[in-house]
Amino acid sequence: MPHFSEKTPRILKRMRTFVDDFTNNLFEIKMEQTIKGQGSESHPSSLEDGRVVTDFDKVKFCQSCGMPLTENVLGTNADGSKSEEYCIYCYQDSKFTTECTMEEMAGFCSQFVDEYNKHTGQNLSREEYKQMLLQFYPNLKRWKKQ
Length: 146
Known about the structure:
By secondary structure, the protein is an alpha+beta fold. It has one domain. It is built from four helices and six strands. The protein has helices spanning 8-28, 102-109, 113-120, 126-136, and strands at residues 45-46, 52-53, 74-76, 82-87, 91-92, 95-96. The strands form three sheets. It has a two-stranded antiparallel sheet. A two-stranded antiparallel ribbon has the order 3-4. The longest helix is centred in the first third of the chain and has 21 residues, at 8-28.
């Protein structure tokens, strides 16, 4: 796991905000789902709670942790502009907020498995979620070279 030292209380507060933003963004972003035998890729499906599922391929994810990106969680570049590739929890002032390996990032993010399960209807264990992240992360810019 990444070493946080004296910054730990501040990091823990940011971590809780990260969880809230991550799970909220999963539902703010409209994702497309083709249901076998129903609809088509151009016809959005509706979920039981009324949310419309649209094009998942158009969703942008943080290229470090995989959080769905919305305007309110974009990281920052050195000039103060918003980063279109990273979230605020991973990237500020054109620098990563934590130096860690891909495996450490997956281990860190796997602690949020209950929130992920709650909002996706899945029932993954922490280890299953970590393994899922480890399959996903090599597609992200930060981890492609590892």
